[in-house]
Amino acid sequence: MIKLYDSALSGNSHKVRMMLGFLDLDHEIVPVNWATGEMKEAWFTDINPRAQLPCLDDNGTVVWDSQAILVYLARHYDESGLWFPDDPMLMTKVVQWLMMANEEIAALAWARVTVLMKQPRDKLEELQSKGKAGLKVLDDALADGPWLAGTDYPTIGDIACFPYAGMAEQGEVDLSAYPSVQAWIARIKALPKYAAMPGL
């Protein structure tokens, strides 16, 4: 049985929950309290020494990091080969979006944390600015087609960027300036077996 060490409010965990649903994989959710720092406790760092969520245990194969987990699940379980295509150019495009998720889109995540956790706001504007730059890149790419890699089907690049783009307004970033992103968010929510989360 696949185990997902997870926090319900984590967008990074949500990416993996979505992928498990899209691939129709049986799994067990193991809740870890992010707000109290439970992932820094010894029982969890024995599993993931980075002390971060999410973490996947597939019958003893442990994978850290949401993007790495998406790659693992797509390669290991996706018989269609569409979620992470073998074609070198398409694969490269998907990896570019995985990197975007770790940079500009991640800034939206930290803006969200700042607002929701009522943390000091001295870096909020900087995070919002970086996140808006990422949203502009997404919006421009999506103006030319329905999915980020230029395909007529979603890939893990879409899944990687989706949660924190979709929850940008929780970090006080207005999505109305990004109509193509808004339409893309709606498309993802309409996919069969889409898994929802608070804020999405």
Question: Helices, strands, pairings?
Answer:
Elements: E1 2-6, H1 11-22, E2 27-31, H2 42-45, E3 55-58, E4 61-64, H3 66-77, H4 88-102, H5 104-116, H6 124-142, H7 156-166, H8 179-189
Parallel strand pairs: 1-2
Antiparallel strand pairs: 1-3, 3-4
Helix pairs in contact: 1-3, 1-7, 4-7, 5-6, 6-8, 7-8
List keywords for this structure.
200 residues; 4-stranded mixed β-sheet; Glutaredoxin; alpha+beta; single chain
Task: Please describe what this structure looks like.
This protein has 200 residues and is an alpha+beta fold. It has two domains: 2-77, Glutaredoxin (3-Layer(aba) Sandwich); 88-189, Glutathione S-transferase Yfyf (Class Pi), Chain A, domain 2, CATH 1.20.1050. It is built from eight helices and four strands; from the N terminus they run E-H-E-H-E-E-H-H-H-H-H-H. It has helices spanning 11-22, 42-45, 66-77, 88-102, 104-116, 124-142, 156-166, 179-189; strands at residues 2-6, 27-31, 55-58, 61-64. It has a four-stranded mixed sheet with strand order 2-1-3-4, covered by helices on one side. Strand 3 (55-58) and strand 4 (61-64) form a beta hairpin. Helix 4 runs parallel beside helix 7 (156-166). It is globular and about 45 Å long. The two termini are 27 Å apart.
